[in-house]
Design brief:
By secondary structure, the chain is of the alpha+beta class. The chain has 2 helices and 6 strands. It has one domain (about 1-105): Dimeric alpha+beta barrel (Alpha-Beta Plaits, 2-Layer Sandwich), CATH 3.30.70. β3 (about 45-50) and β4 form a beta hairpin. InterPro entries: Dimeric_a/b-barrel (IPR011008), YCII (IPR005545).
């Protein structure tokens, strides 16, 4: 099963120790074949909306910085419980904050 884990931005700036620990975590998941993709997201973005025949494109940002998704990881695991455990490990590394885990449907 595939899961998308997203995390919101925080006011805490990462330090070298955090980067090192996160690097080890990413290497472990990559070596195990669990991590399919990971990355940070720009704070703004582009909103594309449709209503009938009308398509509107609006430049961001759209949410307060603390509400914006700052990064993601796409993982492939055997169960929801395994995805939750990886999210718990991630939160232990990065500290206080909020992440969302959602199952990805499709191939």
């Amino acid at each position: 099963m595939r899961y998308l884990m997203t995390t919101k931005a925080t006011d805490t700036a990462p330090d070298e120790a955090l980067f090192a620990e996160m690097g080890r975590f990413i290497e472990e998941l990559s070596a195990a074949g669990v991590l399919l993709a990971t990355g940070g997201l720009e704070p703004g973005g582009i909103l594309v909306t449709s209503s009938g025949e009308e398509i509107t494109v609006t430049d961001g940002p759209f949410a307060e910085a603390k509400e914006a998704v700052a990064g993601f990881a796409l993982i492939e695991v055997r169960s929801k419980e395994e995805a939750i455990e990886l999210a718990r490990r991630f939160r232990r590394i990065v500290g206080d904050g909020e992440s969302v885990v959602q199952q990805v449907f499709g191939p």
